[in-house]
């Protein structure tokens, strides 16, 4: 069982020089950015159907070119910079948001070992990158020199930092079961059974905290336009607002992929598309599973109402956190009590 | 390329550490502190200490620096007052210099910097892992003097870094070797540290808890 799969079998050397590395990065990032663009149209069409209206249907067939039209509109809009703002941080903050939500794609495997970097501590890398993304919100609010955006940024940061605790606790339960911090190993450990089955209670906590991490609907207080002002991006307009928008939807797509790797077995599906050549279509499986999560996020947005902020924080610290810690103690206790080793001890 | 990057990150770390002290705006000062942590974590990753570098990112940048920023941003600070305070403190620079000198004398006289690592000559900065193991050995030997010596001293324990700098993240032994070292040679100190953390966690709860009065 321990040497069922050897990472060296699938090892694709990535240090072949800068040009090959850049091509590898482009191979992941260009389809990913297109995916982010179409995530917005997925959201608008699905929410349209759920609310019995058509949704965008003018630009391109069925409205598929709508996101590009939106982006073009935002790019040609006037750029307004507050006079008393800290200019450098004002422009740096959206870029921090975008760059660090894109960096999370580096260790995601699209096939056995087919990641930009298949690093041994990929999970930790993802968590670190997602925690740095918080600075985008924090600096955007402070640099704009406006009370509304500053309070919005404090609100957003407090929420993201609190729910990150729950999120990483749930992720570490998966790590305990897989016995490795490497993404490919975690996927291979799920060939017997997807981790959603043994870890279903943790999966529920994970989904709730993922919604809060992404600032999606039941917890979308960072930008509650109707009752609070637009949040940390109140003063941002035009091109740099597009950066925030892209970062948000890139976060949704990344989180969907991350969840499907952790809980739904990633690219692995029994006996479909398995061939160890360069033409590897297992990424289609990963895409299908990620689409399930994307649909779920949109579905939640069309269904639930927004929570009040104090309830959001109380829910996190007094209800979710004890549950998450209790489950994190329970999982290794069961593993030790029944003498079940982690799936691969040799890695 | 890697040696150039390491030098670049080292210089950047020193530069941003200086800016932390000299920046006039406290928020900018915390910003340079974050930059310092980023440089150090990049430096550790390039040295092959991938796990420690990523831990720096998660713990210091992801948690502690955000709390610093929160506190500094929410305080209603007047920059003029702060600058007046700072000029008072600059009078005490010689005193600070003396303290720093004493600290370094203590550090270099207590901590064994001797290294049995033949690869040390390739890169002078490789001293760090040896120092960590040296600290553990020193502390264990202090215990040993009181008759509590848990585990005998050793200078050849699991090395927590790889020799080739190209396989920064690819080494599979990184996390495991740190775990082995902590749970064997440093087990007592891990226990003491965890007790201290527990105390630090319970302390604020006790301090902030309101006694419920029954009417």
Briefly characterize the structure.
The complex is a heterodimer of chains A (347) and B (215). By secondary structure, chain A is mostly helical.
Oligomer: heterodimer
User: Got a strand count of chain B?
Assistant: 0
Output mean pLDDT of chain A: 85
Tally of separate helices of chain A: 11
The level of helicity of chain B is 55-70%
Kindly report the average pLDDT value of chain B.
74
Name of the CATH first level of the largest domain in chain B: Mainly Alpha
Label the structural class of chain A. Answer: mainly alpha
Give the termini distance of chain A in whole angstroms: 12 Å
Enzyme class (chain A): translocase
GO cellular component, one term (chain A): mitochondrial inner membrane
Protein name (chain A): NADH-ubiquinone oxidoreductase chain 1
Main location (chain A): membrane
Explain what the structure shows.
Chain B: This is NADH-ubiquinone oxidoreductase chain 6. The complex is a heterodimer of chains A (347) and B (215). Helices cover 61% and strands 0% of the residues of chain A. Chain A has eleven helices and no strands. The longest helix of chain A is centred in the N-terminal third of the chain and has 33 residues, at 18-50. The model of chain A is unreliable at 1-14 (pLDDT under 50). The model of chain B is unreliable at 115-127 and 152-172 (pLDDT under 50). By secondary structure, chain B is mostly helical. Chain B has helices at 2-22, 26-46, 50-74, 79-90, 93-110, 127-145, 174-184, 187-208. Classes of the chains: A mainly alpha (347), B mainly alpha (215). At the A-B interface, helix 4, helix 5 and helix 6 of A face helix 2 and helix 3 of B.
Topology:
The complex is a heterodimer of chains A (347) and B (215).
Chain A lengths: L17 H33 L15 H11 L10 H17 L18 H11 L1 H10 L3 H32 L4 H7 L10 H14 L24 H26 L18 H22 L5 H29 L10
Helix pairs in contact in A: 1-9, 1-10, 2-9, 3-4, 3-5, 3-9, 5-6, 6-8, 6-11, 9-10
Chain B lengths: L1 H21 L3 H21 L3 H25 L4 H12 L2 H18 L16 H19 L28 H11 L2 H22 L7
Family (chain B): Belongs to the complex I subunit 6 family.
GO cellular component, one term (chain B): mitochondrial membrane
Pfam families (chain B): Oxidored_q3
